[in-house]
């Protein structure tokens, strides 16, 4: 059965700027918001947008990500005709097995896409935090009679040079793409969300195979070529929360956004739920002398100390007399007694022994996954 539109999620990135948090797992599998993984947001967007066929392109350390996605039932993507598929690089007679870039990853999975013969394909990044109805973007794509539509969001002008910038005409048509320009002409940043007419995109990939001209990356190669060929391309203006959590600072910021009173992401929105592979955990326990203020505390947590302006993931234990402030604690972390942690990100299954102090007001303190931190290893003022 032909699908009107299927989704392809690029989820193979190493995420090296996240440092210790991506040594063992791909960036889309990193914990977020107490109970989620980053990829939950794009998968939930697909499900809520009515997209029932999704390919997830993995590459770097995919084991945990693959296990988390499973059959896709948590996102209502376990379908007979469609569903979610994990697509890993493979050896073939034409080229090597690794994806060379975002566009090459799609090109290597043309057979999967052709199996559903879609009219449109939406290309998504698996490492952004946002809520978006792709069906509205598709409607815009049709109304503009566009061949390629790129979602954009206004960013502060002083940050525009960090992004791929779309320069547009008054009708929204794109006439120029600037990759991280030093002097940006606009502040419309690409969100890494693309809708293409599949026949048109397929034509570029087929011509690439015949001419030997490689279109490895959408931003660097394929989109500039399409602009050169005067392909009808439009920018879709997105209004709402969107954050690329590609650095430790941005990941910490996004977690802190969830506990702000003006939280615009709103995880409690029953009209647009964010689904996940929920862990079977007991209810949280807060001791009689504990104090929890303005924080997210997931199931399975045991809090005997003080927690303020922080995010605690499932299975976290905090001992008596300990103070956790302005911090993100990832799953199954064990924190002893009389510990002080301020403005930190603590990796999964780390152990913080009694009397440890992790504090540095100038930057985010980082504790690696599975690390054991002893009192003598930490000096007040920085870790």
TrEMBL record:
User: Which keywords has UniProt assigned to this entry?
Assistant: ATP-binding, Carbohydrate metabolism, Glycogen biosynthesis, Glycogen metabolism, Nucleotide-binding, Nucleotidyltransferase, Transferase
What GO terms are given for molecular function? ATP binding; glucose-1-phosphate adenylyltransferase activity
* Catalyses which reaction(s): alpha-D-glucose 1-phosphate + ATP + H(+) = ADP-alpha-D-glucose + diphosphate
- Pfam short name (any one): NTP_transferase
Q: Does the keyword Metal-binding apply?
A: no
Keyword Transferase found: yes
Record's PROSITE patterns? ADP_GLC_PYROPHOSPH_2 (PS00809), ADP_GLC_PYROPHOSPH_3 (PS00810)
Pathway connected to this protein: Glycan biosynthesis; glycogen biosynthesis
One GO BP annotation is: glycogen biosynthetic process
Which residues does the UniProt site feature Could play a key role in the communication between the regulatory and the substrate sites point to?
59, 98
Q: Which residues form the Glucose-1-phosphate adenylyltransferase/Bifunctional protein GlmU-like C-terminal hexapeptide domain?
A: 288-365
Q: Which residues make up the binding site for alpha-D-glucose 1-phosphate?
A: 99, 164, 179-180, 190
Q: What is its EC number?
A: 2.7.7.27
Family annotation (InterPro entries):
ADP-Glc_PPase, ADP_Glu_pyroP_CS, GlgC_bac, GlmU/GlgC-like_hexapep, NTP_transferase_dom, Nucleotide-diphossugar_trans, Trimer_LpxA-like_sf
Q: Which residues form the Nucleotidyl transferase domain?
A: 7-259
Alphabetical list of NCBIfam families matching this protein: glgC (TIGR02091), PRK05293.1 (NF003670)
Q: What role is this protein assigned? A: Involved in the biosynthesis of ADP-glucose, a building block required for the elongation reactions to produce glycogen. Catalyzes the reaction between ATP and alpha-D-glucose 1-phosphate (G1P) to produce pyrophosphate and ADP-Glc.
Family per record: Belongs to the bacterial/plant glucose-1-phosphate adenylyltransferase family.
How is the quaternary structure described? Homotetramer.
What this protein is called in its record is Glucose-1-phosphate adenylyltransferase
User: Species lineage, top-down?
Assistant: Bacteria, Bacillati, Bacillota, Clostridia, Peptostreptococcales
């Amino acid at each position: 059965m032909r699908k009107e539109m299927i989704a392809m999620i690029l989820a193979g990135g190493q995420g090296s700027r996240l440092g210790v948090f991506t040594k063992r797992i791909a960036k889309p599998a990193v914990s977020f918001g107490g109970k989620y993984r980053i990829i939950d947001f794009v998968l939930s967007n697909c499900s809520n947008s009515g997209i029932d066929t999704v390919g997830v392109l993995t590459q770097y350390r995919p084991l945990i990500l693959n296990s988390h996605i499973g059959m896709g039932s948590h996102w209502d993507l376990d379908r007979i005709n469609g569903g979610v598929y994990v697509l890993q690089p493979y050896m073939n007679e034409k080229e090597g097995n690794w994806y060379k870039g975002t566009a090459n990853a799609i090109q290597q999975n043309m057979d999967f896409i052709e199996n559903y013969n879609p009219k449109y394909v939406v290309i998504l990044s698996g490492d952004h935090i946002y809520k978006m109805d792709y069906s509205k973007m598709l409607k815009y794509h049709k109304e503009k009679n566009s061949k390629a539509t790129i979602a954009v969001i206004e960013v502060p002008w002083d940050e525009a040079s960090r992004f791929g910038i779309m320069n547009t005409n008054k009708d929204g048509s794109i006439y120029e793409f600037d990759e991280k320009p030093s002097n940006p002409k606009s502040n419309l940043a690409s969100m890494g969300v693309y809708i293409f007419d599949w026949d048109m995109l397929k034509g570029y990939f087929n011509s690439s195979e015949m001419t030997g001209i490689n279109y490895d990356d959408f931003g660097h190669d394929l989109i500039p070529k399409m602009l050169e060929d005067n392909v009808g391309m439009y920018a879709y203006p997105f209004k709402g929360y969107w954050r690329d959590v590609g650095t430790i600072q941005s990941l910490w910021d996004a977690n802190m956004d969830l506990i702000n009173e003006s939280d615009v992401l709103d995880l409690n929105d029953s009209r647009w739920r964010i689904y996940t592979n929920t862990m079977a955990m007991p209810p949280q326990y807060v001791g009689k002398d504990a104090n929890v203020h303005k924080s997210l505390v997931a199931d399975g947590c045991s809090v005997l100390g003080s927690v303020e302006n922080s995010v605690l993931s499932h299975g976290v234990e905090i001992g008596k007399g300990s103070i956790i402030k302005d911090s993100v604690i990832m799953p199954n972390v064990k924190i002893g007694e009389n510990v002080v942690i301020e403005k930190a990100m603590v990796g999964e299954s780390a152990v913080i022994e009694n009397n440890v102090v992790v504090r540095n007001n100038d930057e985010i303190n980082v504790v690696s996954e599975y690390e054991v931190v002893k009192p003598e290893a930490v000096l007040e003022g920085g870790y």
